[in-house]
Amino acid sequence: GAVVSQHPSWVICKSGTSVKIECRSLDFQATTMFWYRQFPKQSLMLMATSNEGSKATYEQGVEKDKFLINHASLTLSTLTVTSAHPEDSSFYICSAPEARGLRLEETQYFGPGTRLLVL
Amino acid sequence: LAKTTQPISMDSYEGQEVNITCSHNNIATNDYITWYQQFPSQGPRFIIQGYKTKVTNEVASLFIPADRKSSTLSLPRVSLSDTAVYYCLVGPSNFNKFYFGSGTKLNVKP
Questions:
Q1: Which of B42, B46, B51 is the closest to A107 by Cβ?
Q2: Which residues of A touch B103 (CB under 8 A)?
Q3: Most CB atoms closer than 10 Å: which of A13, A23, B22, B31?
């Protein structure tokens, strides 16, 4: 099946610094990618939709200036957590749908996640 | 997007068949039903997807009644490695964003 990768797999940073997380579709092109955040023992929470060539759309309550999303190419979306604080510590996961012609029922593939710890 | 309701947790023993039911009363005509499995500190993994009746693949079966207001994921002969959280999601297409519910934490005991 299709593979989505994330880099880094984990990162520790100091409060106030910025952290960039990459999401790549390895063997397919993705004009749309999604970013989720997951706190311990909780479900995934959708943060934003990343659109290649246009601005990301953010879910209600997600600060777009804090979580910068750039969909630079058909295989890469990046999430930058700016001025990170300890409350931003979480597990960040991206997903990408794979297009196979007109079969809309194909699934989304999720990345392995990035663990962020802000000290 | 259709909201889903699942049991918070389930216990089972190795070798048993496990059925996890998901309610989606407001499912739309063009919505598909997709199930994902998630292990701790990993991204969700696709299990199975269906629209109506029954779908079976090498790891699971998905039963969908005629009214499509619920669905049941069936895992045959579970093992300890099936201990995970299982999410039921509905959406009109692959390109739609998913709003995850609470999921069902399956605990398989020896």
A1: B46
A2: 43
A3: A23
